[in-house]
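Worked example

This section walks through a single chain of length 429. The input is the sequence exactly as stored; nothing has been trimmed or padded.
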Amino acid sequence: MLNQSRSKELFERAQKVLPGGVNSPVRAYRSVGGTPPFLVRGKGSHVWDVDGNEYIDFVGSWGPLILGHSDPEVLEAVSRAMVNGLSFGAPTEIEVEIAELIISMVPNIDMVRMVNSGTEAVMSALRVARGVTGRNKIIKFEGCYHGHSDAMLVKAGSGALTGGTPDSKGVPQAVAEDTLTAQYNDLVSVEQLLDANPAQVAAIIVEPVAANMGVVPPEPGFLEGLRKLCDKHGALLIFDEVITGFRLARGGAQEYFGVRADLVTFGKIIGGGMPVGAYAGSRDIMSQVAPMGPIYQAGTLSGNPVAMAAGLTQLQILQNHPEYYDALERHAKLMAENMRKSAVKANAPVQVNQCGALLCPYFTEHPVRCFADTQKSDLERFRKYFWGMFGRNLYLAPSQYEATFVNVSHSQSDIDAFCAAADDVLKTL
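Given that input, the structure is written out below as tokens.
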């Protein structure tokens, strides 16, 4: 058992001054129990906690650190930027540079608006969709997380054709009613909602890979079907690529799956570890955003020069190294395949979903293709798996419903260590 004495002390202090002792709920380890490690340093694929424990990190700050921790080029760019000032609230050249780069990398977008988080990007994209179409309703998918704005904190009601009900206290019912919930990988559920709400749906928003209920890839034809349904019913298709953007491919999910979205939201990787978000689309759509058009959105720290420096540098590296994506997918596939083999040897009920550099094990005998399937996973087995891996110095997301992130910094020895640890742990379940 790893020594966590200092982390335990800090967690006790934190719980007196921070709700749950954290600034984002999953960090509290409520779903697995125990004490979260308090981290102090990261380099490449490894992180260290306050007790001196070293881990191979497969969280990567929940996705932004695709190059690994403390990439020297990213740190140098941040250092150069910050000595000139942390914020101006005025236009800077680097905002133009990162927008130009994003547009050059991602298909089907002409203009970008920088914001400060993925939540803000989604909130803004939904407002744009409603403003452009003159409609109010949004279709999302059960189990897909799109940030914590009111309209997105909604899960399915009593049936596929019902309006949403709030999934959090403090969300007005009136806001939730305009959010309709369909089933991921089920085009029929989407078409039923569109037919039941004729000319009322402004947009369908989807994680192209549902990476907030673990990892659930789209089945063949699903994203293509959403595109066709949007065209048929006059709705916009929004790809929430806060996780998949620049992770699946340099051009994100639109490139990876060959499906066109009308609006795309970004976060995580475009900030290189700094707080950042963005939404993007065609010139026709984005020209409706203030000050060009009547759809208002603003932000004091939007386009922060230090964050832009980190994000621009990371994107430039990815742009210059297309081979990274082949390596990421190869490593993720190897991890998934080895874990499946280990599960068979151990006679353990495990399904391992993988897409690009994302993977997730579910402790169930049944294939996982939608949110309902994820609920069949044995959470107690996941808890034992998590702590078994943690005890072998593997740092993983403390939730069944989060992805395992493979980054460029992971060496073959890191991948081998993961596979060996998983093999050992599955034997104990």
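What to look for: Residues 83 and 306 are 9 Å apart (CA to CA).
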